[in-house]
């Protein structure tokens, strides 16, 4: 991925990597997985607004599944 794209994803709230003391972005395993998901959704033709919504819904689904698992 190009650096410009990473910056756009961060500005749009799709990604929030940690920063080193010098300001360098530090990508976690979860960040890398999110980048792969963004890449796949772009390949399917979604725009960044659509990708943001998909990621929100997937996160909500994961939270609900975790809550359901705790209830059982």
What does this structure look like?
With 72 residues, the protein is mostly helical. The protein has a single domain (3-71), classed as Orthogonal Bundle (Multidrug-efflux Transporter Regulator, Chain: A, Domain 2). It has helices at 3-11, 29-43, 48-71; strands at residues 18-19, 25-26. A two-stranded antiparallel sheet has the order 1-2. A hairpin with a 5-residue loop joins β1 (18-19) and β2. It is globular, with a radius of gyration of 14 Å.
Secondary-structure element pattern, one letter each? HEEHH
Number of strands: 2
Structural class by sheet pairing and helices: mainly alpha
CATH architecture: Orthogonal Bundle
Strand order of the largest sheet: 1-2
* The level-1 CATH class: Mainly Alpha
In DSSP terms (H or I, runs of 4 or more residues), the helix count works out at: 3
Our measurement of the CA-to-CA distance between the termini, rounded to an integer number of angstroms, reads 41 Å
Overall average residue pLDDT: 96
Count of folded domains: 1
Contiguous low-pLDDT stretches (5 residues minimum) are none
Give a quick precis of the structure.
By secondary structure, the chain is mainly alpha-helical.
Keywords:
72 residues, mainly alpha, Multidrug-efflux Transporter Regulator, Chain: A, Domain 2, two-stranded antiparallel ribbon
Detail the topology: elements first, then pairings:
Elements: H1 3-11, E1 18-19, E2 25-26, H2 29-43, H3 48-71
Antiparallel strand pairs: 1-2
């Amino acid at each position: 991925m190009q650096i410009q794209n990473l910056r756009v994803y961060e500005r749009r709230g799709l990604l929030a990597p940690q920063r080193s003391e010098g300001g360098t972005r530090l990508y976690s395993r979860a960040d890398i997985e999110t980048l792969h998901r963004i890449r796949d959704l772009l390949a399917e033709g979604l725009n960044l607004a659509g990708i943001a919504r998909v990621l929100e819904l997937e996160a909500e689904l994961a939270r609900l599944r975790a809550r359901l698992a705790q209830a059982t």
